[in-house]
Amino acid sequence: MASSRFAVAVHVLALLARAGDVPVKSGEIARSVNTNPVVIRRILCALSRARLVVAQRGASGGAQLARTPARIKLSEVYRAVECGSPFSLHPAPLRRCAVGRNICAVLERVQGEVEGAIERALAKISLQDVLDELQACGAQGAKRDR
Amino acid sequence: MASSRFAVAVHVLALLARAGDVPVKSGEIARSVNTNPVVIRRILCALSRARLVVAQRGASGGAQLARTPARIKLSEVYRAVECGSPFSLHPAPLRRCAVGRNICAVLERVQGEVEGAIERALAKISLQDVLDELQACGAQGAKRDR
DNA sequence: CCCAAATGTAACTATATTGGTTACATTCTG
DNA sequence: CAGAATGTAACCAATATAGTTACATTTGGG
Q: Which Pfam families does the annotation name (chains A, B) (predicted)?
């Protein structure tokens, strides 16, 4: 089961970007994503640990981007909220078999190649690129909603 | 939860490669992988549908590679047994929000980039490469076990 | 020609992950 | 200091995965 945390995280960051420097509350974000505020806070928490957003507690708190959208790469977002590899190794192959004994070492290298490929693909895309595409997609879109 | 089907599939194919043209039974494979024969048969079934192996039913049946190891790319194996994307889109963002309305289209493109990157990374590795690395890893390894 | 052995597959179970929800301690601001 | 927000724990439902049993189907050998 692939998680949707990355998708939600990008959605969240896009909303924060459009809000500029006014802090956005988890409840508002949750409405746009169409989920529960706690789910959003969990994502925000991960993004905050990764230094991509800053959250302010207390009354009139909320979250803002920690950097300009051009300086946030999707690879950082991915690392912040997903586990990394699209497949895992099998637990305990038979050690008294030439294949079973060594296959995991080989597969770990393959796993490394794949993770690197994902990382590089996502490093090419910035949050600003996402905003630009959103703008292009929604050329018909209203400006004055949130 | 990332599945281990790809890892098991590569393990299975390596065993078939080493068996040459003698058919290997799911039970024998299961012993090396250290799992249940049905789990192996499920993987073999997917690999068979992808035309990577041929299975023979009935007494003295079993599975063999459908091609030489050099002509089997790990990208084909991955496609045969895994679902594709390491992340999924979130179900139903709010359509009356400029971001919510268009984010999924943008994310689908990102998803495409990532899937392409995985595909290309795995297309560079053949089953023969895996066999060579197994050999290198297990240079100390016995030849006469299965 | 049948029987043993193998695949293909359905059905069920246990376990883990994910996302949704409630609840609440903590931390701010006005 | 009161209200509002985050951070987080605890729980639940839904789903995916892998393991297991069971069995219909197929096939080759005696």
A: Rrf2
Q: Let me know if residue B73 belongs to a domain.
A: yes
User: Can you list the positions of beta strands (E) in B20-127?
Assistant: 53-56, 62-65
Phi, psi (degrees; rounded to nearest 5) at B54: -120, 135
Highest-pLDDT range among B1-10, B42-51, B130-139: B42-51
**Which H or E element spans position B47?**
helix B37-49
* Surface of A (20-79) touching B: CB under 8 A: 31-35, 74, 78
**Residue A25 lies inside a defined structural domain of this protein:** yes
CATH number at residue B65: 1.10.10.10
Q: Residue B104 and residue A92: Cα distance in Å, rounded?
A: 39
Provide the domain limits for residue A44.
Answer: 5-83+126-137
Q: Which residues of chain A have pLDDT under 70?
A: 139-146
- C1’ D4 / CA A81, Å: 27
